[in-house]
Write a structure and sequence with these properties.
Elements (H helix, E strand, L loop, with lengths): L1 H10 L2 H20 L6 H10 L8 H6 L9 H30 L7 H5 L14 H17 L2
Helix pairs in contact: 2-5
Length: 147
């Protein structure tokens, strides 16, 4: 159980997803460099004389499926693993946010709002003198804040 949990944590990490993207980019670069979809004799004839990077001859190119990288088993597996990793990373980060948002309380009545410790009330007279003072104060502060 611990091994599975560690595997899920590793797959769902953003660092793992980024390393998969880098690997896919390198493999795509190799696929661009090596001609794709030719017959087997082409690779054996061309790469046995001049091996790629000095060690990849025609037989190794065929064995590693570098003659058809974009449809090879390991490349498609890497793409699927990247999709799984990004989905797991998203779920791992989004589900806690969703749980926190479900705990949100919307105060629809004044009675519930007054129970908050942050609320205060100030009596105002009927002539609106306090409201006009507050209005002027807020306008002055807005003028100072604006750039």
């Amino acid at each position: 159980m611990i091994i599975v949990k560690n595997l899920i944590l590793k797959i769902s990490s953003l660092r793992f997803a980024i390393s998969l993207i880098i690997f896919i980019a390198i493999a795509s670069g190799i696929g661009t460099f090596i001609p794709q979809g030719s017959n087997n004799e082409f690779y054996i004839d061309n790469f046995d004389r001049a091996p790629i990077f000095g060690f990849l001859d025609g037989e190794k190119v065929l064995k590693l499926q570098l003659d058809h990288i974009y449809t090879s088993f390991w490349f498609l597996f890497t793409l699927i693993l990247l999709c799984i990793s990004l989905a797991a990373c998203s779920f791992r980060r989004q589900i806690p946010s969703l749980k926190a948002s479900l705990k949100w309380i919307e105060y629809k009545s004044e009675k519930k709002f007054r129970k908050l410790q942050l609320t205060t009330s100030h009596p105002i007279n009927q002539d609106g003198e306090h409201i006009s003072k507050v209005d002027l104060l807020l306008k002055k502060r807005m003028e100072n804040i604006q750039i």
